[in-house]
Design brief:
The complex is a heterotrimer of chains A (305), B (468) and C (281). Chain A is mainly alpha-helical. Chain A is built from 13 helices and two strands, in the order H-E-E-H-H-H-H-H-H-H-H-H-H-H-H. Chain A has a domain of 198 residues: MetI-like fold (Orthogonal Bundle), CATH 1.10.3720. The termini of chain A are far apart. With 468 residues, chain B is α/β, with parallel strands linked by helices. Chain B has two domains: 178 residues, Periplasmic binding protein-like II (D-Maltodextrin-Binding Protein, domain 2, 3-Layer(aba) Sandwich); 218 residues, Periplasmic binding protein-like II (D-Maltodextrin-Binding Protein, domain 2, 3-Layer(aba) Sandwich), CATH 3.40.190.10. In chain B, the strands form six sheets. In chain B, strands 1, 2, 3, 4, 7 and 17 form a six-stranded mixed β-sheet that branches. In chain B, strands 10-13-9-14 form a four-stranded mixed β-sheet. In chain B, helix 2 packs across helix 12. The longest helix of chain B has 25 residues. The radius of gyration of chain C is 23 Å and the shape is globular. In chain C, helix 10 packs antiparallel against helix 13. By secondary structure, chain C is mostly helical. Classes of the chains: A mainly alpha (305), B alpha/beta (468), C mainly alpha (281). At the A-C interface, helix 1, helix 3, helix 4, helix 5 and helix 6 of A face helix 1, helix 4, helix 5, helix 6 and helix 7 of C.
Chain lengths: 305, 468, 281
């Protein structure tokens, strides 16, 4: 009987330990993720200016949000920038992964340099890009003028389209190394014999890529794509530092729009900002869910070939 | 095993304790000065970004001049409003706080964060001030703050560039049409080196300085497109002015890069002889003479802002700004008012007393102070002072500025106007202006419903832009 | 014929890689050399990358006048403590998730994954309020704790997938010897997990060091607790105008290059950890 009691006590002790070990993370998660989310939803039904008491106004904030052209413009911008980023970054990083993986000299060097941007702060690099592309004393315009390619300084950040291009440029600069490393990891898992036999059969590099590399990336491609998309939806630092959403608010994105309403606006806007936040969360989650659903069929499980 | 858990818990607890301890450490610093137990310690928050600003200098003088009260000034820069909001939420307000850079100053007073000053304003004091001093921050007859900064707009221009363009630097254009021609001449003479006009499109206050000012001088609207004759916002009335600037922008007369840079850059370029003309506040005379590098070297001057040909010119727009509130949580409101009173009387001359080279013209709401300072030879000799007015009679303010009381649902003017200038060809200016008016007017009727504004104030009887 | 094709392909590869490498390095090189230009030279622009005259005054100005010493200390404290907290809290949680099953577990794991979808900015204001309730407002701990909390979902999953791959036989052997749950973790799994812990430490440090939005929102009222990222960018909005640009560039270099140097030396851990964790997860 002693043995049974001991093992029961032991089991209880185990459970307590497990719980205690999990607890800190749960506490942090609850305090700084779960509860804030609930509070956000709560505030979205209120009119609140940050220091007097919130006033219940039902769904008014949501109705206003539906009519808010600038918000939907920000949403559109977010989608647009994410798509632009995806179209450039995924093929580029995949290409780089293939190249770095191939038998060339300096593999390590290239891998190191291309990942280097990822360890820098996007906000700080944004400042550097801001200086580089500054209209009248930036080095980009300086080089372009000195080599005679243009006559008048180009206003990179004052024009909506070119400002978006610069934002994408910054995002690409920062992310492409990270995506490349992830692709590299997946590619290196592919058995080398497959390539060897393909080469013996006379397959070209492109054919090898199309028929071996790409399909065998499988679920990894899906995951990496998802990260690229997520990153695009969360764009904040780069836009805030480069354009602040301007000119006007034509380059604003979801995260920046929400931030401005929380922190920069006059009057009772915290409730409205919360409603917009809830909407943004839904949109991001919906995009993620739809993406997974659409691509799961294509890529199936890890074992699929 | 249990020991390990205990160790972990102990570690985290001690870390927590150090956190609390850390916060207490910073408190006594403000009490370091003035250890004598009888001195009343007050804290004051200001918006200034550098510690050597006029308010700190004045308060230092105040502290030295008497033994009863000691004021410590803390400066918070551009994040001032956020700081204040946070403090009001946690009820940790200082004794005195400046109302500057706040989007909606009256909301703080409505929320009960400020204490009324009426008890401390003696009759003598009242007589000293220009009457508008007591109306700006007045709710139901209770005065919550007295503005201490007055500003109006002037055109700043570069005499050297005028000469290079073949223009007479002593004759600044009197009409907007002539100013357009001048800007064009300067841009052509510059050929990429310098430009005729500087328009900092990114800065929000640009529209108040450039568009509103002309609108007020021309008797079209009040600030922010508010029409006091109808009691409604009517941005369409500002259309000719917007189109004027859009035309200058389109024809390349405006310094490039302005869409993404702000007023500071324009000022720096103005001093670097790259901009011929731009509009700025009267206080920049002080700024260029005393603070900005190169301001004493460049040959700049000041003139009145022109209006369209054939328009009758109204009085300049006097902007009353800033001021200080006594916090309702303050334990020493009378002493706080003493400090504020001292500041109102001395903030203009204090920098000059500290450093003789920092003379500046004064335009406070105390005519006595103005007369005293502006009569000094050093002030008269300052560059640009010739273009300034010396008394408040030539300027006029508006009793109510409705746009500060609104909660907008939609884009505000600072977001829409840049697009009207930059994308003037693609945007339907009439549609945008009417949408803007609608946004502001619906917020206006909300404010009226909530009692934040009175109809009588919005449409004063017999109001005339020219006789206000 | 074959050989030509191969060489052309090889050459093409090199060209692409070199172009991308130059693109990646350029802004950093520009910033580095630009920080040594005199204020006048930097503001005048032109197309020179190298300074005409080497001028260190931007750095001294940043350090003395613009409070960069404080910002650097703050960054170090925030990043360092975040790493410690993340490792302690995260590794324990990861172990529990890796080695146990309980009814709520799939739901918990799913929630952790979903949380990564919420845009950071959405939670900022409520996190504000939460910090106020906990009386953390204005204290550097508010940044440390929230930074840790925001990084945990991803890093815990990274650690968990690594621990899952450690053979259970070791666990069982230890259990036979009478090891409790916690002891198994502490004496056996943790030492075996050193590679992933190194990676997690580096990532946590990097994310904390580079974080902008979170510390920006939490340090508005207290410049004393601002890290470098916030401090550098704050200069842009200060009324100093473009005279602050050269301090900002120096500050940017100060902010970036420690991380760059750490990375160059610990390159292996960054890359390997990412690949190990991601492929299994």
């Amino acid at each position: 009987m002693n043995k049974a009691v001991t093992s029961r006590n032991r089991k209880r002790a185990q459970h307590i330990q497990m719980f205690l070990m999990l607890l800190p993370m749960l506490v942090l998660f609850f305090l700084f993720c779960a509860y804030p989310l609930i509070e956000s939803v709560y505030l979205s039904f209120m009119k609140y200016n940050g220091f007097t008491d919130p006033v219940y106004i039902g769904l008014d904030n949501y109705f206003r949000m539906f009519r808010d052209g600038s918000w939907w413009n920000a949403v559109l911008n977010t989608f647009q920038l994410t798509v632009m980023a995806y179209v450039i970054q995924i093929p580029l990083s995949l290409l780089l992964a293939v190249l770095v993986n191939s038998k060339i000299k300096g593999q390590n060097f290239f891998r190191t340099i291309i990942f280097l941007p990822n360890v820098t702060s996007t906000a700080i690099i944004g400042i550097i890009f801001f200086f580089m592309f500054s209209s009248y004393n930036g080095i980009v315009n300086g080089i372009l003028i000195n080599t005679g390619l243009i006559n008048r300084p180009v206003e990179w950040l004052g024009n909506v389209f070119s400002a978006k291009v610069i934002i994408i440029l910054l995002n690409t600069w920062s992310q492409v190394g990270y995506l490349m490393i992830l692709f590299l990891a997946a590619i290196q898992k592919i058995p080398a014999e497959l390539y060897e036999s393909a080469t013996l059969d006379g397959a070209s590099k492109w054919q090898q890529f199309k028929n071996i590399t790409f399909p065998m990336l499988g679920q990894m491609f899906q995951v990496i794509s998802m990260m690229c998309i997520l990153n695009g939806f969360q764009l904040f630092d780069s836009v805030k530092v480069l354009t602040g959403g301007g000119p006007g608010n034509r380059t604003s994105v979801m995260a920046l729009y929400i931030y401005d309403y929380f922190f920069n606006s006059t009057g009772a806007q915290q409730g409205y900002a919360s409603a917009v936040s809830v909407c943004a969360t839904f949109i991001t989650a919906a995009v993620g869910a739809i993406y997974f659903l659409l691509t799961s069929k294509k890529f199936g499980s890890d074992e699929g070939r | 095993m249990k020991k390990r858990i205990a160790l972990l818990l102990a570690l985290s607890m001690s870390l927590g304790l150090t956190a609390c301890g850390g916060e207490e450490k910073s408190e006594p610093e403000s009490k370091k000065n003035g250890e004598s137990a009888d001195k009343i310690e007050l804290t004051m928050w200001a918006r200034a970004s550098s510690a050597e600003n006029n308010q700190t200098i004045t308060m230092d003088e105040f502290n030295e001049s008497q033994d009863k009260i000691h004021v410590t000034v803390e400066c918070y820069g551009d994040n001032y409003e956020e700081v204040l909001k946070l403090a009001s939420q946690s009820k940790e307000l200082p004794d005195i706080f400046e109302i500057s850079g706040l989007g909606n100053p009256l909301s703080y007073m409505e929320a009960g964060l400020a204490a009324p000053m009426n008890d401390y304003i003696t009759e003598d004091l009242e007589a000293e001030f220009n009457p508008s001093a007591f109306t700006k921050y007045n709710i139901d007859g209770q005065v919550y703050a007295i503005p201490h900064m007055t500003r109006y707009i002037r055109a700043y221009y570069n005499r050297d560039l005028f000469e290079k363009a073949g223009l007479n630097p002593d004759e600044f254009p009197a009409t907007l049409e002539e100013m357009y021609d001048a800007a064009k001449a300067i841009t052509e003479a510059g050929d990429g080196e310098f430009y005729g006009f500087g328009l900092p499109i990114k800065t929000g206050s640009t529209w108040e300085r450039n568009v509103d000012d002309i609108a007020i001088l021309s008797g079209l609207t009040g600030p922010y497109g508010f029409d006091f004759t109808t009691g409604q916002f009517d941005f369409a009335k500002q259309k000719p002015i917007i189109e004027y600037f859009a035309k200058m922008y389109k024809e390349g007369l405006v310094m490039p890069g302005a869409e993404s840079l702000d007023i500071e850059v324009i000022r720096a370029n103005f001093i670097a002889n790259k901009i011929g003309i731009y509009f700025d506040g009267s206080w920049m005379v002080n700024g260029y003479n005393n603070e900005i590098e190169g301001g004493d070297v460049t040959n700049w001057d000041v003139a009145a802002v022109p209006v369209f040909e054939g328009t009758e010119r109204a009085k300049d727009y006097l902007m009353l700004e800033s001021g200080h509130c006594i916090a309702s949580t303050s334990e020493h409101p009378a002493e706080a008012f003493e400090a504020i009173n001292y500041l109102l009387h001395n903030v203009y001359s204090a920098p000059a007393r500290k450093d003789a080279s920092m003379v500046a013209p004064s335009l406070s709401l105390l005519d006595s102070v103005n007369e005293e300072i502006n009569a000094k030879e050093e002030v008269k000799a300052l560059k640009g002072s010739v273009g300034l007015t010396t008394g408040t009679e030539e300027l006029s303010s508006f009793v109510v500025t409705p746009h500060t009381m609104l909660t907008l649902e939609g884009d505000d003017r600072d977001t829409v106007y840049p697009l009207l200038i930059i994308n003037s060809e693609e945007v339907d200016i009439d549609a945008e202006l009417s949408k803007l008016s609608e946004t502001y007017n619906s917020a206006l009727s909300n404010a009226l419903d909530e009692g934040l504004l009175e109809e009588a104030d919005l449409k004063p009887e017999g109001f005339d832009y020219y006789t206000r | 014929m074959r050989k030509n094709k191969v060489t052309a392909g090889r050459l093409g590869s090199y060209v692409v890689l070199i172009l991308v490498a130059v693109f990646c390095a350029f802004p950093l090189i520009y910033a580095f050399f630009g920080s040594f230009k005199s204020s006048v030279e930097f503001l005048n622009g032109g197309s020179n990358i190298l300074p005409e005259v080497w001028d260190f005054s931007s750095y001294t100005k940043a350090w003395e006048e613009a409070n960069f010493a404080q910002y650097t200390i703050n960054s170090l404290v925030i990043s360092g403590v975040t790493v410690v907290l993340t490792l302690v809290v995260g590794s324990m949680a990861a172990y529990v998730l890796a080695r146990t099953t309980f009814r709520a577990k799939p739901a918990l794991v799913a929630v952790l994954g979903l949380v990564m979808f919420i845009p950071n900015v959405v939670l900022i204001f409520p996190i504000f309020n939460m910090c106020q309730r906990l009386h953390l407002m204005g204290n550097i701990w508010s940044i440390i704790i929230t930074q840790t909390a925001s990084g945990l979902p991803f890093l815990v999953m990274l650690m968990q997938s690594y621990m899952v791959s450690i053979s259970k036989e070791i666990d069982e052997a230890a259990e036979m010897d009478g090891c409790s749950f916690f002891r198994k973790f502490y004496l056996i799994i943790l030492p075996l997990s050193k590679p992933i812990l190194a990676t997690v430490a580096l990532f946590a440090f990097k994310n904390a060091w580079n974080s902008y939005l979170l510390p920006l929102a939490l340090s508005l009222s207290k410049p004393e607790i601002q890290p470098l990222t916030v401090g550098v960018i704050a200069l842009k909005d200060m009324g100093e105008g473009i005279s602050a640009w050269n301090i900002m560039i120096a500050g940017s270099v100060l902010s970036i290059f420690p991380m760059v140097i750490v990375y160059l030396f610990m390159n292996r851990y960054f890359v390997e950890g990412l690949t190990a964790g991601s492929v299994k997860g």
